[in-house]
Design brief:
29% of the residues lie in helices and 27% in strands. With 375 residues, it is of the alpha+beta class. The protein has three domains: 41 residues, no CATH class; 175 residues, Protein Transport Mog1p, Chain A (3-Layer(aba) Sandwich), CATH 3.40.1000; 141 residues, Protein Transport Mog1p, Chain A (3-Layer(aba) Sandwich). The strands form two sheets. Strands 1, 2, 3, 4, 5, 6, 7, 8 and 9 form a nine-stranded antiparallel β-sheet that branches. Strands 10-11-12-15-14-13 form a six-stranded antiparallel β-sheet. Strand 1 and strand 2 form a beta hairpin.
Length: 375
């Protein structure tokens, strides 16, 4: 994301050099007056300090301008950095953003419904430190949250992530020099950069700055219905921090399954997972159950305290994972083993130490089916 200075075409004659002096050295121009020979040169001022002292720059994109505060704590929008906008109504299209910003991840963004990208830079008032902010708009709340959860978990075990929960409107996560924010159809990614500080210092500085910038942006983003319905349906008790992933497809490894949420849980040393699949109506939820029954040969165990199907996934070089699945009106719930906690060929005693048994699965599934309201 290259920065750019004031275009020379916009500055006639000597004004070009005047502007360069103002930006780089903080020198005021007085016509063509030359300094006296031998005069002490003026002190070199910080370009960042000059920018923030005047209140910072503004985002040129009128659609998202209000989302970016001009100043936050000791940071301000860098007036010497061109706001880059891609997508509908912008100078560049989404193919351009693939080349200029997203590199090899572009197809993943597009698969989640990417529609627009705005890239803004904040600069520290008393140093050359910067915070690059990338705001991505998706076609749906589900697509935006799915990409947020993909970013946070890095497609691995949430229990092992070093990312921490960040308190903002919507959902947020804070890492080492990075932060992620989700709200409705928007994903915001923030990155702290410094050419002068050590990695340890950058972590400390970013921990102080990124939540403040993210919080202000989150508060300015349009409110809406909140988390996807499937995510809202997941129980909060025993859930690992940031232990939620929304998948737009591929639940239980089935392509064409549609979207749903997976929650990651821990009780003592034991792990388990909960899946919630919210559909528009009961018939659609029944279709999910029937597909599971057909594809995985799910069976109804005898003497179950409520209607439930039981099935297993895995095998070969993958650990077996047992699931209990049922439906409450238009929402399908499943409780199963946590594959991250298991290994192929594990002994039964080791499995029992790492996962909950069938009775415990039913004990956690039952209250989900007895809920009085839909998400």
């Amino acid at each position: 994301m290259p920065s750019s200075s004031v275009p020379s075409s916009a500055l006639p004659g000597s004004a070009i050099w005047c502007s360069i002096g103002v930006l780089a050295l903080g020198i005021a121009c007085r016509g063509n007056t030359e300094p006296e020979p031998g005069a002490v040169p003026p002190p070199i001022a910080s370009a960042a300090g000059d920018v923030c002292a005047s209140g910072g720059g503004e985002v040129s994109d009128t659609e998202t301008q209000a989302y970016f505060p001009r100043t936050v704590a000791s940071f301000c929008i860098d007036r010497n950095y061109d706001t880059r906008v891609y997508g509908a109504g912008a100078r560049w299209n989404l193919d351009d953003v693939c080349l200029q910003l997203l590199n090899g991840e572009c197809e993943s963004y597009k698969a989640h419904g990417l529609r627009r990208v705005v890239n803004v830079r904040y600069v520290a008032g008393q140093s050359a430190d910067t915070v690059d902010v990338r705001l991505s708009k998706f076609s749906s709340t589900e697509g935006a949250f799915a990409f947020f959860s993909k970013r946070v978990t890095a497609s691995s075990d949430p229990a092992l992530t070093t990312v921490r929960k960040m308190s903002v409107a919507g959902a947020g996560a804070l890492g080492s020099g990075i932060a992620y924010l989700w709200r409705e159809k928007y994903l915001v990614e923030l990155r702290y950069d410094s050419i002068a500080e050590t990695p340890a210092a950058i972590v400390k500085l970013s921990d102080a700055a990124l939540p403040k910038i993210a919080s202000r942006i989150a508060d300015a983003l349009p409110p809406g219905v909140g988390l996807p319905a499937s995510v809202r349906a997941l129980p909060a008790e025993e859930r690992i921090d940031l232990g939620v992933v929304y998948r737009t497809d591929g639940l239980f490894g089935l392509q064409g399954s549609g979207g749903g949420a997976e929650g990651y849980y821990r009780v003592g040393k034991k792990r388990y997972r909960v899946v919630a699949i919210a559909r528009q109506d009961e018939d659609s939820a029944k279709d999910v159950i029937n597909t599971i029954k057909r594809e995985f040969r799910a069976k109804s165990p005898k003497n179950s305290p409520f209607p439930v199907l039981r099935f297993r996934l895995g095998g070969g070089d993958q650990p077996f994972v047992e699931w209990a699945i049922s439906r409450r009106r238009s929402v399908v719930f499943a409780v199963g083993d946590e594959s991250y906690a298991l290994q192929a060929g594990m002994s039964q005693p080791d499995r029992e130490q790492a996962s909950i048994d069938w009775r415990e699965k039913l004990r956690r599934l039952r209250p989900l089916l007895e809920g009085s309201t839909d998400p």
